[in-house]
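Protocol step 4 of 6: structure prediction from sequence.
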Amino acid sequence: MNAMLAAAVCIGAAAADAPVPAEQGVLTDSYLLRAERALQLARDDVPAMTEAADRAAARLAAGGAFYAAGQASMVSELCGRAGGFMALKSLGSAVPADGDVVVYSQPPGEPIPDGIGGSAALVIVLGGTGAGEGGFGFPNHAAEAGISPTLANAIPGWLFTGELVAALTRLGKMPVMFESIGMYGGYARMARYREKGIFWHDEHSVPALPGGEVAGRYIDTVSGMLRRVEAEERGNLNRAGAWAAEGKGAGHRVIMYSMGHLFPAEVADTAIADVFESAVWNSGFMQSSVPDHEYAPGDVLIHIGYQHAPYRLLERARPAGARVVYVDVMCHRDYTGDEDVIWIDPMWPWPDGCVALEGYDVPILPASGIVNGAIAWEIYRVTEACLRGE
């Protein structure tokens, strides 16, 4: 399929799939709207999350440890994360004790290990219900919404996090939350707290937060971002998929680079890798090495990034004749007029954390994992449609 035909086929198909409201029980084709539907379905789970958060907060306030376990990409998504708990750490091979709390992201089709499910810890299961006696399980609504179950686990993960923060404030405590390392104060904040083992604020002015408020605000905020990407970036998403299908069909190199916590596993370990070569490319962090790849005309490179535009990728790929699509908060001014470069704005804020709390210095609960994941899957979906000639 030549370039003009591929683009025409894709854009024509996408026009038929123009944004429509996600009605109850109806799957929309857009992955962005599917992800929004999963968020809305999770709204009914929030009251139970509030109950679980009250139980977990009592344990943590009494000195219990806080762990993440299960799906490796979700452990990374929740630990060391902008807007997340500084006190949360990977369980690894440790056995949790009585009084501890474990957030377990259940990989599809895998049972909870006996050392976790049978322990005396309070176990919060994301994406499943087998939390053991006295534990809690929250669905990810992946099947109902038609999204990746590994991406979907991030939704109950961050909703529960928000409710846990609120529950702790009702006990008069405020946990230290991470600031994005893309912010000027991010590293300084870690030096001030984590490196000294300080996970609670001795003094704070965050008022007691009612149950359901933080999770509800996160649902509303991230849903709005997904709808805005759908409305404002639809043409760019269609072109990206058309380019990838054209490159794939002609035997050129088609790569999806990614960075972050949920990524790159969400690319490398899912159906996305059936179409795209997967590799890590950290943009905006000079200490990070980048792949030593060579490019040629006809190659298509997708970068699912973070805050900064992938300037090293652009500077290497464009002189070689490769096309570049990048998803980052900031665009690169030198390539705004380049017809073979597409910038897709993910619409989340620079700090990544998107829920501001009265009296707290940084926003909590990051949006990037869910939004970037939905964009990556949408580019894959459009690419697949184009390859089928739809």
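Step 5 (inspection) to follow. The chain has two domains: 3-20+233-352+368-387, 41-223.
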